[in-house]
Prior knowledge:
Strand content of chain A: under 5%
Shape of chain A: elongated
Low-confidence stretches of chain A: 1-20, 134-138
Number of strands of chain B: 27
CATH superfamily of the largest domain in chain A: DnaJ domain
Number of strands of chain A: 2
Mean pLDDT of chain A: 82
CATH topology of the largest domain in chain A: Helix Hairpins
Helix content of chain B: 25-40%
Number of domains of chain A: 2
Low-confidence stretches of chain B: 1-20, 624-629
Distance between the termini of chain B: 51 Å
Mean pLDDT of chain B: 84
Number of helices of chain B: 15
Helix content of chain A: 55-70%
Radius of gyration of chain A: 22 Å
Strand order of the largest sheet of chain A: 1-2
Oligomer: heterodimer
Structural class of chain B: alpha+beta
CATH architecture of the largest domain in chain A: Orthogonal Bundle
Amino acid sequence: xxxxxxSTSKLMNEAISPHTDAIVKACWSCHGPVHVGILFCxxxxxxxxxxxxxxxxxxxxxxxxxxxxxxxxQVYFDLQRQLHPDRFAGKSPKEKALSQQQATAxxxxxxxxxxxxxxxxxxxxxxxxxxxxxxxNLVSDQSILIxxxxxxxxxxxxxxxxxxNILSKKTKTETDAIVEQIAKAFESNAIETAGRLxxxxxxxxxxxDEIRHVRAKLLA
Amino acid sequence: MPQLxxxxxxxxxSTSHPDETELAIGIDLGTTNSVVAISAKNTVEVxxxxxxxxxxxxxxxxxxxGSAIVGELAKRLLLSRPDSVVSSIKRLMGxxxxxxxxxxxxxxxxxxxxxxxxxxxxxxNIAGRTLTPVxxxxxxxxxxxxxxxxxxxxxxxxAVITVPAYFDDAQRLATKDxxxxxxxxxxxxxxxxxxxxLAYGLDKGxxxxxxxxxxxxxxxxxxxxxxxxxxxxxxxxxxxxxLGGDDFDHAIADHFLSQRKIKLGEVHLSSAEVKVALxxxxxxxxxxxxAEKGEWVLTAGEMPTQHTLTREEFENxxxxxxxxxxxxxxxxxxxxxxxxxxxxxxxxxxxxxxxxLVKNSVADYFGFDPLADIDPDQVVAVGAALxxxxxxxxxxxxxxDVTPLSLGLETMGGLVEKVIAxxxxxxxxKAQEFTTxxxxxxxxSIHVVQGERELVDQNRSLAKFNLNGIPPMAAGAxxxxxxxxxxADGLLxxxxxxxxxxxxxxxxxxxTYGLSEEEMTKMLYDSMANAQDDIxxxxxxxxxxxxxxAMNAVTSALQADCHLLSVEEREAIGDKMDEVLQCIKGTxxxxxxxxxxxxxxxxxxxxxxxxxxxxxxxxxxxxxxxLDE
Lengths: 220, 629
């Protein structure tokens, strides 16, 4: 855990306060000054490499769990419109490579933020607590584990579509409730609570996956 | 003083190359037919032959002197000289000998039954010559390029080529290699369903959730896309790279051959006779798309046999295949988190969607009639041409595609560790850390696979390589980071590094089913008398692009900050710029590179002054901000 925390805080430093290192670097193409994090050189317009930013910064969003999917899509599309390799088909190899790096970083940010679980996981990580992955013995909240096991046991006994749909609906309702609680936890800066709830959300997502498998089996 | 050049708008494309054409074509390289199209100002023209035919049959006949005949003429030779004619070669792209078994049925290929060198790539015996699918596909591409050049009366060197969305890395690479052999610069490999969506989206102004159902000759693809304001976002894709209209031909041929067996007893068929049977199967399929019943004569060997088939019998023969496509549709939709009710439209692509059972099954599943306003045989080429224009002249549309299959590494016990999940937007890069298993272990073998199954053997092997030179450490102490990178063409590159020692390993990845670089070079050399010229020309073009980039950069810098320079300093830089301009006009690559280098040196002091100024200004900004807090 110590190691994980250290690497997280390093990430934080790079991400949140780039000012400590350098605020200006030389453009690779015209060698003039470019503010770190700017996409195109203000002088020669050459595309720059991706800066060390967190996913929210990269998309120009505030760190906030509640996210509008419409806004997320729009900022992502706007940035891809400028940075996607398709915009650089006739350019020099260096520009093509940088555009690929930029587009890759954008995709990473978008994919992480658009999904509730991944976004929660990432935010907890960003704020210095690690979410425990499954199989880890350190689950402090025994009730999460017991609940998850009970749900799985219940799933194995199901053999009709009707029962499965009831369970699916229940899991869905619970997932929505947890997501709501996670949002509240982040709002009140209760990171540890958010972390615990995120672990629960992980189990619920797994449960939904398994329900999907059972549904496919019942259909076949 | 030399004229301080015309100063262009920064970032704008500059000097044009009068010797070089900017024409870029769109190519649909299909299993059964191929199509070439060109777009200008968003208006697409599908290029036709003298007989007004747009479709070029993807069939190649080899003359005794080795020259290739492609298209209609080759198709006509298929029955009379089946030994020297190849069809459906796309089914073998990026495939190994053992894969042929999974393609099922009797195959119309004369396969060389052993590996050549390290590569497991399939090789065919055609009229006594050994050819790879890459070379045969290159011949088809050359014919399409020729058609475009004749039509446009200009040299065409650039193309967007479409591939099935469900093509794996080896199949994509094989396609790109074929283009290279044909002397075509691939601007982008675009997924066929995405190209079709582009054609529909731009033409019909479609918005919302769309499904593209693409049943070609040898491949089945389904993509779920979200269309909005010029953005084509692929959300999920699925399919079967070995399922298509060819399978319908096979089903009919098998049916006829089993009837024949009842009449004549067991008769061994040569690959030429299989070709004839398949051709008969295809004729029957095409006929039963319109007619309710038909009668065919199968001429194989010395005993012709007569067969009748009704539409209903035909539909029973192909029902398992058609049901499979609908099942895949359902899985992809659910995978993306949707159900049929969310879908606003279904686009039908590929000649096989003309079969009534296919059309009806898709309509039944979605609950409405699919769109087929654009000719399903041409829609992919139309999309490819639109994208070719967008890439060369700029555009506001945006294609965002995904990886069709998960990418992973073999771990202990033959299990697969997934590194990149399927349906991840591309380009993407992901790293995974591994460690050593034994004390002092100095090498590690890395096996890259593609697919969704848990065991290595059930997935597709892409490449194997060894990571050597790991410094001696205790077991578990080394940190080996393997990075997977998928570019916008959907092509994978793998690199590996050992973290604790900081040694970055250059790894040579030998594709399991690809051509080695040496083999590729040799083929390039053999196939083009002017291969050397071609490579030189490419290098020259690259040098010119780079020179223009440098000129553009210095011009912009001068425009912004020339007050930092004395008149003499400005003149010195101007001289070097003149030199670059002179060299760009010529054809000597080393001269151009030298001039660019000199320009770079001459602007060093200028760059330092600009940086000093920039940092001073930035620091002023920070202290003001700090005061504000």
